[in-house]
Amino acid sequence: METAFSQWKRQCLNKLDVSKKGSVDEDIVHIVSLLNSWDNYFTTSSCSGRLILIDGVPQSAEVHKQNCVWLFVSHQKCSSDDLMAALAKSSGDAVMKFEPFILHVQCRRLEDAQLMHSVAVNSGFRNSGLTVSKAGKIITAVRSTHGLEVPLSDHGRLLVEQDYIRFLVQVANQKMEENLRRIQRFYQNLQAALSAEQLQKLQIPDTPSSQQLQNQKAPHRLETEQREEGEETNKASVYKRRRKRGQQVGTDCCNVDADSSPPELEDCLDLFT
Amino acid sequence: METAFSQWKRQCLNKLDVSKKGSVDEDIVHIVSLLNSWDNYFTTSSCSGRLILIDGVPQSAEVHKQNCVWLFVSHQKCSSDDLMAALAKSSGDAVMKFEPFILHVQCRRLEDAQLMHSVAVNSGFRNSGLTVSKAGKIITAVRSTHGLEVPLSDHGRLLVEQDYIRFLVQVANQKMEENLRRIQRFYQNLQAALSAEQLQKLQIPDTPSSQQLQNQKAPHRLETEQREEGEETNKASVYKRRRKRGQQVGTDCCNVDADSSPPELEDCLDLFT
């Protein structure tokens, strides 16, 4: 019998891509392929990072992207001429945004999601987090703090000079480069973590937990529930190694517990860039 | 014997606030107090939302906030004169940011964290997520997509006109207002969810799960592990009701599985504002 997870995975990978673009972005095809080739993971949505210009309804504080006119989208570095040409078409309140890499990975077990989260945070994606639905869907969202959001026109009237647009595009392109470096770091850390995981499985082939991988579970039961203490101990060293880069602590939150563990503090620290 | 969670909670609440500001922000004192008054929750860090102006090192794509000069911080609406006065002190690359409400809530059990996540997403904080550490710390981060990040000076040279600063402060103040509305919504939804939870406990006082609440658990074991099917069923209706507002699905991601459940899709949808 097929497990609920395997069924979700099969259905998801056979389904139509309903996004605007309709395909996986070039710069992250290798990551999506790697994850989908592993039994315990599959990706449900992704974007490699993009620079967008959206024309919103003036004076509306609650505008959804889908109600706006998309004047420009680029998943690569672009020129200020490209942006200026798109801006010329604005008749509302245009806003330029740089949105970094985002990836949603559905995971078989809670510990798979923890591994994914750990890899993400250690690769610089510090706004990453898990969702666990009642139906048993466990998803890690890989998210960065590394954005830009700049109002550029008011009722179609340009608010800034061309020099500013040039500076802004330069900043956005730097962010695009940094975003790609983080994607690369994420890919390398992911490969290392998955290899370590596989190696561990090969070293302890007959533990109850490896047998459990073969079991057919109800979707709402986390397989960690029946995991043995022994494997937890084996895994701890790998996990700690992966966590090392996340050990910094800072104090620019408004209210912070002195001993909070790094990931949650880091969330609030943010990168300035 | 004190549970690990109760110990963490006691230690955290007795500890020094190590943030820059050193206290909980005025607009969220009621939320922090409410959460800390419940046995299954405590807050580890928070910020009600703020407008900041930071002077960064020029040409550096990887600047941490703590290495920058903070020229201005306001947790309330502000005037363009305030921002202009602060900008005059810039000697590097100044960036204005609006950062919305952020809250980290440590939760006793995974299902408590799920409830918190559900309340957060339904209140408009769609970048919220969980972290589960190996030590057993389960934390929900309440996060919004509702920001601004605008470069304003280059090596101390102002890049925009005063008119633009006025427009920008107006946009930031609108976001501050919307942020407060969401905080209020979060508080109301939180009260409702916690009351429903309490009511349910009173209605089924002798189920194994309510007995489990009294048990002393090792920190790395999630108490949901031993939860009975019966209570899962009882809880489902409350959960579904709370999830209703999150049912919209959109298509502006780059690559999206047609049937992904709302929270993860919403993460990628973002609010334009």
From TrEMBL, chains A, B:
Pathway: tRNA modification; wybutosine-tRNA(Phe) biosynthesis. It catalyses: 4-demethyl-7-[(3S)-3-amino-3-carboxypropyl]wyosine(37) in tRNA(Phe) + S-adenosyl-L-methionine = 7-[(3S)-3-amino-3-carboxypropyl]wyosine(37) in tRNA(Phe) + S-adenosyl-L-homocysteine + H(+). Transmembrane segments: none annotated. Residues 7-191 form the tRNA wybutosine-synthesizing protein domain. Residues 206-217 have a biased composition (Polar residues). Residues 206-263 are annotated as: Disordered. GO terms for biological process: methylation; tRNA processing. Keywords: Methyltransferase, S-adenosyl-L-methionine, Transferase, tRNA processing. The keyword Calcium does not apply. One of its GO terms (molecular function) is methyltransferase activity. The keyword Cell membrane does not apply. Its EC number is 2.1.1.282. Probable S-adenosyl-L-methionine-dependent methyltransferase that acts as a component of the wybutosine biosynthesis pathway. Wybutosine is a hyper modified guanosine with a tricyclic base found at the 3'-position adjacent to the anticodon of eukaryotic phenylalanine tRNA. Belongs to the TYW3 family. This is tRNA wybutosine-synthesizing protein 3 homolog. It comes from Myripristis murdjan (pinecone soldierfish).
